[in-house]
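Narrative of activities, Objective 1.

The group set out to show that a structural description can be obtained from nothing but a protein's sequence at a throughput compatible with the screening campaign. Below is one input-output pair from the validation batch, recorded exactly as produced.
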Amino acid sequence: MKASLFSLFAIVSLALSPSMHAEDGWVSLFNGKDLTGWKSNVTTEEKPETKADVFTVEDGKLKISGGRAHIFYMGPDGAAKFKNFELKAKVMTTPGANSGIYIHTAFQEKSWPAQGYECQVNTTHTDIKKTGGLYAVQDVLNVAPSVDNEWFDYYIKVEGKHITIKINDKTTVDWTEPADWDPSKTLKNMDGRKLSEGTIALQGHDPKSTTFYKDIFIKPLP
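Output recorded for this entry:
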């Protein structure tokens, strides 16, 4: 029995990259040191004002600053996908910042991700759609539940067709995708806003926007 348990432990250890550590089912997506497991589209984004170093690691934080681009979690094998899951992260906006956490998405070389939903990050940017909303689907309007220059807890759960978002443990979205959901009929240029499966992406919005992320964990669910 001891040998079998040791073998199982070895297999699990090998399956996790140095940036991933499972604890009570939670797996770390960001190691706080570098961008291992992540892939950005900053070199192919067709926005001339976008800086080459939009995504950097600074004092254990993932800093997003310098233009429109996205960074996708690819995992140790480059093919990370999640269907049902819980995700939690600590996020901090700066004045005028705009960002987002995409779910059920996929890597693409340019533009806004066409696949999946965006969970909004915006405390004081001019966009009226604020932190904690499911962008253009169930928005938090005008007043954000977050404060600039302060860390806040961002929680997302996807289970079946149900999406829950909480900011600092307060529910901001409790939405079930209808069986006949057709985003092309209600959302302009957002045909891919639907649940299927996919990875996680973080958004860099514009050259004046700076947002920080840390302690990014995911827990796959059955």
